[in-house]
Amino acid sequence: MTNNRQQKTINDLEFLFGAAILIIVALLFLWWRTHERAQAQARQGAEHAARLHALEQERASAQEKLAAFTHITSDGIVQVDANGLVTYMNDRARDLLQVTNRVERPLREVAWGYDLQPLVAQVLSESGGATSQTIVKDERAFHVQVVALGDENKRGALLGITEVTELQRLGRARREFVANISHELRTPVASLQLLADTLSEDVLDNKELVTDLLSRARTQIDLLKQLTDELMDLALIESGQAPIRLVSIFAVDLVNDAIAPLRPQLERKQIALETHIPPDMEVLADPQAIRKVISNLTHNALKFTPNEGRLVIRAVWHNQGADVEFSIQDNGIGIPDKDLPRIFERFYKVDRSRTRAAGDLRGTGLGLAIARHIVEAHGGKISVASVEGKGSTFYFTLPSGE
Ligand code: ADP
Question: Going by C-beta distance under 8 Å and a sequence separation of 6 or more, which residues neighbour residue 291?
Fold first, then answer.
C-alpha cells in the first residue's frame, strides 16, 4: 500500500518534472523567438537608419555642390515656377540683372526690361524642352538659355544667363582689325602696282620721270614697312612679349636721340624746334621703347604742322619729383574735340582728307596706340590737349630716375 502510494507520488513527481521541463523548453523557445525577432527588427532599424543617414548625406552633399556651383559659376542662374514666379536666383544673376528686390515675384518684375518672359513661357508651355536667345539691354549683351524643369503637372524653368558683351566686342574688334589692315595695305599696294605699270611702259628713256616714279615707289614701300613694323611692335607689346627693362637715364639724352632722325624733315618744313629739359633730370625708362614714343609724337607734330611751324618739347618734375611729365607741343592743325577720346585707338585717324594733307608723311593710325601701350607699361599716363586750328600738346609721364 505504502509502496503503491510511493509509486504514485513518484509518477506524479515525474509527470510534474516532465511538464515543468516542457514549459521551460517552450518558454525558452518563445524567449528565443522574441529575442531573434527583436534582433532582426533592431538590425532592420539600424540598416534603415544607416540608409537614411546615407541619403541625408547624399542630399546635403548634392546641395553643397549645387550651392558651390551656383556661387562660383560666372553665369547667372534663375529658377521660376509654373506661374512664372522667381523661386531662386544666385548672386551672379542679381548682379547681371541688377536685381535689388526680393525673389518670389514674377520674373517680368524681377528682371525688368530684359524680355525674358517669352522665352520662359515657351518652355513652360506644353512642349517644354529648351530654348536660348541673345538679349541686348543698355549696350550689354546676354546669352540666355532656358530649360524646362519637372513634368507636365508641375513644370518650372531654369535660366542660365551669360554676359557676352566682351566676347562680342572682341569679335567686332578682330573683324575691324582685319578690315583696317586690308584697308591700310590696299592704298600702297595699289600705288605700287600703278607705278610698276607706268614703269613697264616705254618711259625708261625719260630719266626724270623714272626718278620721280622710283621716289614715289620708295615712299609707298616706306609706308608698307612702317605698317608691318608697327603691327609687329603692337603684336609684341600686346602679347607681353616686349618686356620693359627700366634703367635710369637722362631725359635730355632720350629726347635728343629720338629726334635726331627727324631733323632733316624738320628742316625741310622749316619747323623750329625748342627743347626745355633740365640737364640733370633722370627718368626710369626702357630707352628704346621711350625713344619710340617721343619719336612717334614728334613725327605726328611735324606731320600735322604746316611749314614754318613751331614745336616745343618740355620735361618737368611732377608729384614732388616722383614723376617726370614730358610734353610735345605744336601749333599745327589741331584735333577736333569729338575725335580726342579716340585717337589712341588702333588705326584711328581723324579723317582721311587731313591724312592726305600730310602728303608723303601719311601714317598708319597705329603710332599713338603703340605710344599708349609703352607709356602704360612704364606705369605712366598719356594724354592730349588740342584746339582745332591752333595746335596740340601731347603729355606723358614716367617715373623719375636716381
Ligand atoms: P598716324 O600714323 O595716322 O599718325 P597716330 O596713331 O600716330 O597715327 O595718330 C592718330 C591720328 O591722330 C592721326 O591720324 C591724326 O589724325 C591725329 N593726330 C595725332 N597727332 C596729331 C597732332 N600732333 N596734330 C594733329 N593731329 C594729330
Answer: 254, 257, 258
pTM exceeding the 0.70 threshold for the entire prediction = no
Cα–Cα distance for residue pair 35/248, rounded to 1 Å: 93
pLDDT digits (tens, 9 = 90+) for 93-106: 988 888 876 667 88
Q: Which residue has the cell 618740355?
A: 314
The atom of ligand 1 lying closest to the CA of 349 is: 14
Sheet strands side by side (includes 310-318): 272-276, 310-318, 323-330, 391-399, 382-387
Cβ of 364 closer than 6 Å to ligand 1, yes or no, is: yes
Which residue shows C-alpha cell 509518477? Answer: 11
d(CA 318, CA 374): 19
Strands (E), 209-345: 247-250, 272-276, 282-285, 310-318, 323-330
For a pocket test of ligand 1, which of 231, 300, 327, 361 has the largest count of ligand atoms closer than 8 A to its C-beta?
300
Ligand 1 centroid to residue 254 C-alpha, Å: 22
Tens-digit pLDDT profile for residues 236-262 = 888 888 888 999 999 999 999 999 999
Q: Is 356 helix (H, G, I), strand (E, B) or coil?
A: helix
Cell triple for residue 378?
Answer: 612704364
Contact between 360 and 283 under an 8 Å Cβ cutoff? The reply is no
Distance between Cα 360 and ligand 1 center (Å): 14
**For residue 47, is pLDDT > 70?**
yes
Interval between CA 191 and ligand 1 midpoint (Å): 22
Q: Whose CA is nearest to atom 2 of ligand 1?
A: 363
Q: Could you tell me if 395 and 327 are in contact, meaning their C-beta atoms sit under 8 angstroms apart?
A: yes
